[in-house]
Amino acid sequence: MIASLPKSGSAFATSLVWRAIVVLALGLAVLAICHFTPPPVALAEAGVVMHLPDTAAGLKGKTEDASEAEKTVLPHDTQIVKKIYSHGPGEELHCEIVLSGSDRRSIHRPEACLRGQGWTIINGGTLPVKLNDGTTMNVMRLIIDRPVQDASGRKHTLRSLYLYWFASKTLLTPLHSERLFRTYYDLLFASKTHRWAYIIVSAPVLRGFSPGGLNEDQTLDLMKRFIAEAAPQFQRVDTQK
Question: What gap in Å lies between CA 177 and CA 81, rounded to an integer?
C-alpha cells in the first residue's frame, strides 16, 4: 500500500497547482492584450529640424563632427548636429542636438555622462527661458566644475554651465523622469510613440581664463539670449496636440 502524503506535502502540492494556474492566467492575459491592442502609431515628424543656425546672439557658429565616443556608443540611427559658437576669445558656447532613432538608448540621463567625463555637479534646477517667438520654456540648468591644468602645470577649477531639455513633436520638458513617464504612458494608453531630441547648450565660465572672459552671470545671460534666438529656428513642437 502506498502511504498517503502528509498534510504538509498536500498543502505544498496545492500551492504548486495554484501557482501554475496564476502563471497560465497571466500568460493568457498578456496574449489577449497583445491581440486586441492596436500597434503603436509612430509620429511622422520629430520636434526638431537637424540644422543649427549659422549665427545667434551675436555669435558665429562653426560645425563640429560627432565625437568618436558618440559614434561608438550611440545606436547607428542616432542623428547628431553640433556647433561651437564664439565671438572673440572670452565668449564661447556649444550647442548640440541628439535625435533618437528606433533605439531608445540614443537618449539617456545627462548627469551620468557628465560625471563619467570628470565633471562634478555643483548645483542644478529648472530655469525659464523666454524665446523670441513669445513663448517661454523651461530648461534644466547644471553648474559643473572640473579640474584643469594650465601650460605651466598649475591646477585650476574650470566652471561650466550646462543647459538641456528634451523635445518631441508634442512635448517639451527639462526633466528626464517626465520624458520617460510620457514615453511609456502614451505607449500604453494612447498607442503613440515619441521621437525624442535632446538639446544641449553649454558654455565655460572664462573669467580668469581668457582676456575679456565672462563671469558666471554674464555667461548665463549669453546662453539665454542664444536659446531665445536659436531654439525657434530648429524646434517644431506643437504642444497643442
Answer: 24
